[in-house]
Write a structure and sequence with these properties.
heterotrimer, A: 322 residues, mainly alpha, 11 helices, 70% helix, elongated, B: 326 residues, alpha/beta, eight-stranded mixed beta sheet, four-stranded antiparallel beta sheet, 10 helices, globular
Chain lengths: 322, 326, 319
């Protein structure tokens, strides 16, 4: 949903520390600070191992990882073992959970579990593809805007402001109006709504990194712009981007679900978690499980990414004071 | 009985990387009107020692053992409510960073009045007047105007004076000053030290001064305690310490001879740098913690930990092979 | 301060203008000939030409845009293709409803979100913190239209204590109006409350670790005063900013909520308009939403500047 979109920006503002224990006055050196450094091979591998170890210690983040993996399995592997999500069998309609239908059947006798698994694929596509596209477009723009501050930056930031003025839903609605509802349009709308945030974050990272000593040293050594961008800026910006991805993907999942629910996304009979909830509305009293399962799936998938993202943020981004 | 008696204090913290033993064991005593200087490198435990007196360390992760007695009263046994009554009134603190230690959202007058009204029955008007008086006492010009201003409108030196004014507002018995002059100009420093001397003379306030700065120690301290790796390694009256430092670490800090302590670019005398690092605060083996860096270390220094033993008038040192005098 | 406001308003106006251009050309990009839509099926070419002339559709686009701008500024948004009513009238009817919903939801969110955030920060690491953080996470992850469905399922269908849908104007019957608004406001406010809770907690934790809070403690002030007077005041900046930013999300969230609870508000208007290709309404709705968003952001900027003098001087929000 659009709210989780905004969170990306808003977390930037919060300078408070999520986990900061007040350090005793001045004398103890905090052991957790990892400053961004030159991306030398050995140093990087070592740092990654350390971060992975720290991530492992956070139980909530591990729970998130488990949920994410489960989601991926559901979307990619499970459908192979299940029946056809489109297979209708009106005689078996509205059956509650049973051996042959672990989640029950819907109004057209279709196996709910198979439909949920198929819906997972749609959600995965929506979340991942939209984020990937947004990054493909947003990161280069952000890099350029941060690097060539004088000319491009003000222009780019004004454009970002304008884009941000269009709430995601309105844009998606508009797109659906022009091109008709479909998964492709959902992905495009989601991607476009993520782009301004990504541009901002990338630009912010570039600005912060270029002030660092080792970058000035490289410049003094005569390194060209592109080489600086690729060798120093990008590797150090990846942690912020990874964190942003863990925010953007669940936003994409929620967004797709919302749009499909409203009839602006994936159209029935193609399965989609949001679309399933729309039909479920009509059959509340007869088959409440139709309204429960798709929603639970959305919640768990989103929760998984959120938990993982929180953990990653703690571990990867010491600057946010956490 | 001394005004403040700290006996066998030990403080450790629970951190993600294990238990950090910031203060392994220390005892000290401060009399009324006495200025005690706590010296040592970063990480030696001097701040933690001082902050444990008003219990300003994070409660969830800190463990304190030992005794802290103020005028005979055991502070470690007090409840949170009781120690809140002590803070600001009997024991107060002046912190190191004047820039960030004042709340930017409220006027300095507000912040002084706050502590006055907390501990003493005063009307707002009376408290306001007293705040102005306090600002005058600490040497701030035009206090009637300043009292209404916000921290960001004052210079660093003035902010530090405001901090001092807040700390002495209720005439505390003990004032803890954590590096009070480090962030200030040498010229301002003299003024701040004068304020401390004033307090000591007029109110009999005992002051615990945490500092790196030898100049300040020589200038104002009565007693000096040198700490290393969570323990006291030497304690002596100031004159005696400068004249006859016995512990190799103290010698190192003062340079080969007291007069040769290095003078930094800003005109201050600095503790000389000693090669090597402070040991990690996780363990506490039964040996001398300074041994790896000590120019006088011998084999028995690794087999038992030295305890504080007499080494002159009112002078104790924890070393198996202390420096010779003369 | 005056300069600051002027500068920000100027920027906002530029953004608004660009947005209006985008909206205008965006709608023109829609498939279908507006003249045909206006005239209806089976119109003769002469009728079409007449309509085109009447509506200025035969004039060059930039001129059309200027006309459009002029019309909008004088409050004329055209007529709805559904029922030929003036769009401005429709808007005026529907906006207050959505605003009421949004405000109620915000109230719920502030009370629950900020409150929980403060409690979680103070009792960090203990049961209350975990519970609050847990709810925060769940509130963020759960799609709130699902929450709405479940709420209806539970309260209306099972327990039958609250109505499932429908709307009664406040002027007619305040009691009934509020009764019907409870569920939608709660549902809409949940997601917002979760965000607020996280932000408040985060800001408060930062404050509680700050040097001046340490000073406040050293003065012997009671815990309540330290939190309420020192820590909270400086957390407000963050919270207010979040409030402002989320308001836009709230409006879009209202769209879904109105759909579920069948409330004839602005949000439902949007969906219906899209589904029936009601172009004048779509255009107006998008424009109003965007302008509203820009105005809210402007207010947030100004408030932020009020609370934080350093921002006023440097002038940049992006830093």
């Amino acid at each position: 949903m659009a709210d989780t979109n905004e969170i990306a920006d808003v977390d930037e503002l919060a300078e408070g520390s999520e986990r900061g224990a007040p350090a005793p006055a001045s004398t103890l050196v905090p052991g957790n600070v990892t400053a961004p450094g030159p991306a030398t091979g050995a140093g990087r591998a070592d740092r990654r191992r350390r971060m992975w170890r720290r991530l492992r210690r956070r139980r909530l983040a591990m729970l998130g990882l488990v949920l994410v993996v489960a989601f991926l399995l559901l979307a990619l592997v499970v459908p192979v073992f299940l029946g056809d999500p489109e297979k209708q069998d009106f005689l078996a309609a509205f059956q509650p959970a049973s051996g042959s239908h672990p989640l029950g059947t819907d109004d057209q006798g279709r196996d709910l579990l198979a439909r949920v698994a198929a819906g997972a694929r749609v959600s995965l596509a929506a979340g991942v593809l939209s984020t990937a596209f947004a990054m493909l477009v947003g990161v280069p723009i952000g890099l350029v805007a941060g690097f060539y501050r004088r000319w491009l930056d003000p222009v780019v930031m004004r454009l970002v402001d304008v884009l941000l003025a269009f709430p995601f839903l309105v844009f998606a609605v508009g797109l659906a109006a022009i091109l008709g509802p479909s998964l492709r349009n959902v992905v495009v709308a989601l991607a476009v709504s993520q782009i301004p945030g990504i541009i901002r974050i990338t630009r912010g990272e570039v600005l912060a990194i270029r002030e660092l000593d080792f970058v000035s040293a490289a410049v003094a050594d005569g390194a060209g712009d592109l080489s600086i961008l690729f060798r120093y800026v990008l590797p150090n910006a990846t942690s912020a981007l990874i964190v942003q991805a863990t925010v953007a993907i669940p936003a994409g999942i929620l967004g797709e679900a919302t749009l499909s629910f409203l009839g602006l996304g994936v159209r029935p009979p193609a399965p989609s978690w949001g679309g399933m909830l729309t039909t479920a509305q009509q059959f509340f009293t007869q088959a409440p499980w139709l309204a429960i399962w798709p929603g639970v799936m959305i919640a768990l998938a989103t929760l998984g990414f959120n938990l993982l993202g929180d953990g990653l943020r703690d571990v990867l981004d010491p600057r946010s004071g956490r | 009985m001394s005004l403040l008696e700290v006996t066998d204090l030990a403080v450790s913290f629970d951190t993600e990387d294990g238990e950090v033993r910031a203060v392994k064991q220390i005892s000290l005593a401060v009399e009324r009107g006495e200025i005690l200087a706590l010296c040592g490198e970063s990480g030696c435990g001097k701040s933690v020692t001082a902050m444990s007196i008003p219990r300003l360390l994070p409660p969830e992760t800190t463990r304190i053992s030992g005794s802290i007695r103020l005028d005979g009263r055991e502070l470690t046994a007090l409840s949170e409510r009781e120690i809140q009554a002590i803070r600001g009134r009997d024991v107060s603190v002046v912190f190191q960073e004047p820039m960030t230690s004042l709340n930017p959202a409220y006027s300095v007058g507000f912040q002084i009045v706050e502590v006055l009204r907390r501990h003493e029955r005063m009307s707002r008007r009376a408290a306001r007047d007293r705040a102005v008086e306090l600002l005058r006492l600490v040497g701030i010009a035009a206090p009637e105007r300043r009292v209404r201003e916000y921290p960001h409108q004052l210079s660093g030196g003035m902010r530090q004076r405001v901090m001092i004014a807040m700390a002495v507002a209720c005439s505390p018995k003990v004032l803890i000053a954590d590096e009070p002059t480090t962030a200030l100009d040498v010229t301002i420093q003299a003024g701040v030290l004068d304020v401390f001397r004033n307090l000591r003379d007029r109110l009999g306030t005992a002051i615990i001064l945490i500092t790196h700065d030898l100049g300040v120690v020589a200038d104002i301290a009565d007693q000096v305690v040198v700490m290393y790796a969570g323990r006291a390694v030497e304690r002596a009256p100031v004159g005696e310490l400068f004249a006859a430092p016995r512990h190799p670490y103290t010698r190192g800090l003062l340079g080969a001879l007291p007069a040769a302590a290095s003078v930094g670019a800003d005109g201050r005398r600095r503790l000389a740098e000693i090669p090597g690092l402070v040991p990690a605060p996780y363990s506490d083996p039964d040996e001398c913690a300074f041994r790896p860096r000590c120019p006088r270390a011998q084999s028995d220094c690794a087999s038992r930990r030295p305890v504080l033993s007499p080494a002159g008038p009112d002078h104790v040192v924890a070393c198996l092979h202390p420096e010779e005098v003369g | 301060m005056g300069w600051f406001v002027l500068r920000r308003t100027g920027a906002a106006l530029i953004v608004a203008l660009i947005a209006s251009v985008l909206v205008f050309f965006g709608v023109r990009a829609l498939p279908g000939d507006p003249a045909v839509v206006l005239a209806g099926e089976g119109a003769t070419p002469e009728l079409l030409a007449q309509i085109r002339h009447q509506y200025g559709l035969d004039r060059p686009l930039p001129v059309q845009y200027v006309d459009y701008l002029r019309q909008v500024l004088s409050g004329d948004f055209g007529r709805s293709t559904q029922d030929r009513l003036p769009v401005s009238q429709i808007l005026l009817e529907r906006l207050p409803i959505t605003l009421e919903l949004a405000l109620l939801a915000m109230l719920v969110a502030i009370v629950i979100g900020v409150g929980a955030g403060i409690v979680a920060a103070i009792r960090r690491g203990r049961a209350a913190d975990y519970v609050a953080t847990g709810f925060g996470l769940i509130g963020l992850s759960v799609p709130h239209f699902w929450l709405g469905l479940l709420a209806v399922l539970f309260f209306a269908v099972q327990l039958k204590i609250l109505p499932a849908s429908g709307y009664v104007p406040f002027s007619e019957d305040p009691g009934e109006n509020l009764r019907r608004m409870i569920l939608p406001a709660l549902v809409l406010g949940t997601g917002f409350a979760a965000v607020l809770m996280r932000q408040t907690r985060s800001a408060m934790l930062g404050q509680l670790a700050s040097d001046y809070v340490r000073t406040a403690r050293s003065k012997g002030l009671s815990g309540a005063r330290v939190v309420g007077v020192h820590a909270l005041r400086n957390s407000l900046t963050t919270v207010v900013t979040v409030l402002g930013l989320q308001l836009g999300a709230l409006i879009s969230g209202a769209v879904v909520t109105e759909q579920i609870f069948v409330i004839p508000g602005f949000g439902k208007l949007t969906i219906d308009a899209v589904l029936t290709r009601n172009y004048p309404v779509i255009q107006a709705v998008v424009l109003v939403t965007v302008i509203g968003y820009i105005v809210v952001n402007l207010l947030v900027d100004v408030t932020y500047g009020l609370l934080n003098p350093r921002v006023r001087l440097s002038g940049a929000r992006h830093g």
